Amino acid sequence: MSLQGKVAIVTGSSRGIGRAIAERLGRDGADVVVTFAGNQDKAEEVVKTIEATGSKAIALQVDIRKLEEVRTLFEKTIDHFGKVDILVNNAAGKNIFKPTAQMTEDEYNNMFDITRGVYFALGQAAHHLADKGRIISISTSGTAMAIPSGGAYAGCKAAIEHFSAALAKELGDRGITVNTISPGVTQTDGLVLAQEQVNQMIAQTPLGRLGQPEDLADAVALLVSDDAHWITGQSIRANGGIV
Fold first, then answer.
1. Could you state, in order of their start, the residue ranges of all structural domains in the chain?
2. pTM exceeds 0.90 for this model
3. What is 7-238's CATH topology?
4. Catalytic residue among 153, 184, 185, 215
5. By the 8 A CB rule, do 104 and 133 touch?
6. What would the pLDDT profile of 74-113 be if each residue is shown by its tens digit?
7. 205 and 238 Cβ atoms separated by less than 8 Å
8. Residue 153 is among the residues annotated as catalytic for this protein
């Protein structure tokens, strides 16, 4: 229970990678705020799973794109638990892959609205996190390569990596670490690749399989631990070696 006494916010944690992260932090002893955009039933399932491990949890509905709701998230967390030690920015919208010449303004805005929300969530964390806190944002290994049709998607994630690197320098004197984790292709309900594409991804991955949500949860657990106190301002690729 290495996180005993800590309070964590995990955005977008009713399913997939976010759910695995929230449940892992709960198993490690943290009290967890589970946020969801629309599926309260799934979020409450996560709360029950965390509470079954002996940690406390609540579910809050948050639209990360709306600054007022981001502010309220931190206020409600502090009202309920008294503090915030850990923020994991996992919330994501629809990932759209299109050639640059075909991307519409609405599609572009849908992705970058989430990026803007992450930026202001980082700002709220800077205001409210306890000293020696931990901030993790989920990016993508796609920022390390140029993928046809992936320019807008990779760009919105690359911005988050730069937000985080700058914030790490701003908060270092408080002992707060700020990092990003960049997954590769991960097996979730939202994975829409054809089996042939999945096989290609596996063949290109040195560890010989797709990522699982629990793989990312393990990486987050490492970076929020006391053992990672000297790691900050980094973008760490947790992807089985595909990039």
1. 7-238
2. yes
3. Rossmann fold (3.40.50)
4. 153
5. no
6. 999 999 999 999 999 999 888 888 999 999 999 999 999 9
7. no
8. yes
